[in-house]
């Protein structure tokens, strides 16, 4: 177990939807940091949310964590919290101004282009929501091309060491085929996914 996690503490409560890539990135980070956590599966209609859930997540979104009284929403914010509080000797969030800024750029991409590209295509397929697939597909392949080019220069998105940038972007890229987006022409992306999946304590998201 992570040496920075007090033995007297309860496991981190992790409120999620199983099929959510936003939730999976938090579960993956928690597992890679070797932190104890308790999954609390929420209904998509929110019918089993705790009474005070909206105080932490005003829009009713997942994921939310409760780390022994520290309650946080937003998957990328949670990633930052976890790696800052439970440092394990790896620079998940680089200290230098330049590398920290580059990491933040990828977190913004995860919340923007990734969410409106491959995540949107997958969501449409899973829940039969009508979208302009041609536009989403075009946006997704532009993003994947950029990621693939970035990964031609180094092993991970920021450099040759994995960071939270990779964790934030991994799930929706890995599951892009569930939105009818092929990864076959992106050799660097496929190699990057394999590197992440080979990490100790990696946990996969269930295929939909």
Structure summarized in a few sentences:
The chain has 208 residues and is of the alpha+beta class. The chain is built from nine helices and four strands.
Architecture overview:
With 208 residues, this protein is of the alpha+beta class. The protein has 2 domains: 74 residues, Glutaredoxin (3-Layer(aba) Sandwich), CATH 3.40.30.10; 102 residues, Glutathione S-transferase Yfyf (Class Pi), Chain A, domain 2 (Up-down Bundle). Helices cover 46% and strands 9% of the residues. It has 9 helices and 4 strands. A 4-stranded mixed beta sheet has the order 2-1-3-4, with helices on one face. A hairpin with a 2-residue loop joins strand 3 and strand 4. The protein is globular and about 50 Å long. The chain starts with 11 loop residues before the first strand and ends in an 11-residue tail after the last helix. Keywords: Transferase. It comes from Cocleimonas flava. Pfam families: GST_C, GST_N_3.
């Amino acid at each position: 177990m992570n040496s920075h996690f007090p033995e007297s503490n309860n496991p981190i409560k992790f409120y999620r939807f199983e099929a959510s890539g936003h939730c999976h990135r938090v579960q993956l980070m928690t597992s890679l940091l070797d932190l104890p956590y308790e999954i609390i599966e929420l209904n998509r209609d929110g019918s089993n949310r705790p009474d005070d859930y909206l105080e932490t997540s005003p829009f009713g979104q997942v994921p939310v964590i409760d780390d022994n009284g520290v309650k946080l929403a937003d998957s990328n914010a949670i990633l930052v919290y976890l790696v800052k509080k439970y440092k394990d000797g790896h620079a998940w969030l680089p200290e230098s101004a330049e590398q920290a800024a580059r990491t933040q750029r990828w977190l913004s991409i995860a919340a923007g282009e990734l969410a409106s590209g491959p995540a949107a295509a997958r969501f449409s397929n899973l829940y039969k929501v009508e979208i302009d697939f041609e536009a989403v597909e075009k946006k997704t392949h532009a993003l994947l091309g950029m990621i693939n080019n970035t990964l031609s220069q180094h092993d991970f998105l920021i450099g040759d060491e994995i960071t939270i940038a990779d964790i934030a972007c991994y799930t929706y890229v890995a599951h892009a085929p569930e939105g009818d987006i092929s990864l076959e022409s992106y050799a660097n992306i496929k190699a990057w996914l394999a590197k992440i999946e080979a990490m100790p304590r990696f946990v996969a998201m269930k295929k939909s």
